[in-house]
Amino acid sequence: MHQFRNKPRELRLKEIIICQSIVGLFILIITVYLIIFGFGYKIDLKNMKIIHTGIIYLAYTPKNSEVFINGELKNSGSPFDIILLPNSYFLEIKQNGYNTWSQSINVVADKVASIKNIVLFKQNPEISLITDTGLIASIDAPYDTRVKNPVGDLTSNGYEIWADDNLVTRFSKQISNVIWYPGMEYIAFQQDKEIRIIDKGGKNDIVLAELNSAEPTKFIFSWDGSSLLYRDGAEYKRAQIN
Fold first, then answer.
1. pLDDT attached to residue 75
2. pTM here?
3. What is the pLDDT of residues 11-58, one digit of tens each?
4. 189 - beta bridge partners?
5. DSSP H helical segments within the chain, as ranges?
6. Assigned CATH topology for domain 49-119
7. For residues 203 and 87, is the Cβ–Cβ distance under 8 A?
8. Using a CB cutoff of 8 Å and minimum separation of 24, what contacts does 146-155 make?
9. Which regions of the chain are under pLDDT 50?
10. Where are the domains of the chain?
11. Which of 171, 173, 203 has the alpha carbon at shortest distance from 186?
12. What's the rounded Cα separation, in Å, for the pair 153 and 124?
């Protein structure tokens, strides 16, 4: 401070003007950036361009699962949204003890790519025997009396799954007992000695429960989708799937 006071007036004034200019320029840059960001633009540093952005919105359970975009951890809580440059991105949602959900998604400028009702299913669900006669009767009841299919009826020819007129997926091995999972975002079916589930886009095909026989069986879900109730030979079982 003493040295600054001893400097000539003109030199001190010059230094003050330079400092104020630097601060003013910094504030201007921040202000411009915030305005650009607020109007949905982002600076592409790689190509040195200002580009209009898009948004990814995800809602999933368990809610504390981790979101990875192109292999990089971005979040650990649902719902999740992020502003990104238009491009193709590979999404993963992970949680210890659960099957990983994954999907590629294209981000388009001025658009929101929204995926809701994502469910992670347990890798090794707890299995218990069912003795309640009411639940057993529900499992054994004809599907049409257990669940009324809403708009978006499912059909299968033994190797394909269709939702209305849209092909969901095609298999090389025969399937049976195709039903909606609660929320109509996933479809369950039996294939050989397994009860499996797949999302309605035909991806994320995983095993929910293994059976002792390949004979066609019967199964339903609890109203909240947390349990799979099924017949396995002469036994009736409950799998806590999420």
1. 83
2. 0.77
3. 556 666 666 667 666 665 555 445 445 545 555 556 656 677 899 999
4. 196
5. 2-6, 9-38, 133-140, 143-146
6. Immunoglobulin-like (2.60.40)
7. no
8. 146/220, 147/179, 147/180, 147/220, 149/180, 150/180, 150/184, 152/180, 152/184, 154/178, 154/179, 154/180, 154/187
9. 4, 32-33, 35-36, 39, 145-151
10. 2-39, 49-119, 126-240
11. 203
12. 30
DSSP string, 98-163: BPPEEEEEEE-TT-EEEEEEEE--BSS-EEEE---HHHHHHHHS-HHHH----SS-EEE-SSEEEE
Using DSSP's 3-state secondary structure scheme, residue 51 falls into strand
Q: 151 near 160, Cβ under 8 Å?
A: no
- Which among 214, 161, 217 has a CA at the least distance from the CA of 192? 214
- Alpha carbon distance 141, 229 (integer Å): 12
Strands 87-94 and 194-199: unpaired
Beta carbons within 8 Å of 25's beta carbon, 6+ residues apart: none
